[in-house]
Amino acid sequence: MDGLPPGFRFHDLRHYLASVLVASEADVKVVQKRMPHASAMTTLNTYGHMWPDADESTRAAVAGALAARRARDSHELRTDCELSVVSRQESAGQTASDPQMSK
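The structure assignment produced for this chain is given below.
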């Protein structure tokens, strides 16, 4: 076929489609239907190595939870610091309309 690499086969498109579906976290049954394979076992035997294993999934889940926690803690820290600044300014008798507050 013109424009494709030498040795390219139509069947390579099937493998490409399967890899795209797996990479997008499609369920094995979805990939099975798109191939179409008679059973999910055929899909797993052919493409099972492409799905992340339990360790990878667990690491990704923990990493996501920690990242969310860091983001939340960072937001709370910024909020606490901002409240502290406002509180100090109010104690000093400054208001939001004071020229020094806008700096």
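Interim note for the steering committee: The CA atoms of residues 88 and 98 lie 14 Å apart. The chain has two domains: 1-51, 53-89.
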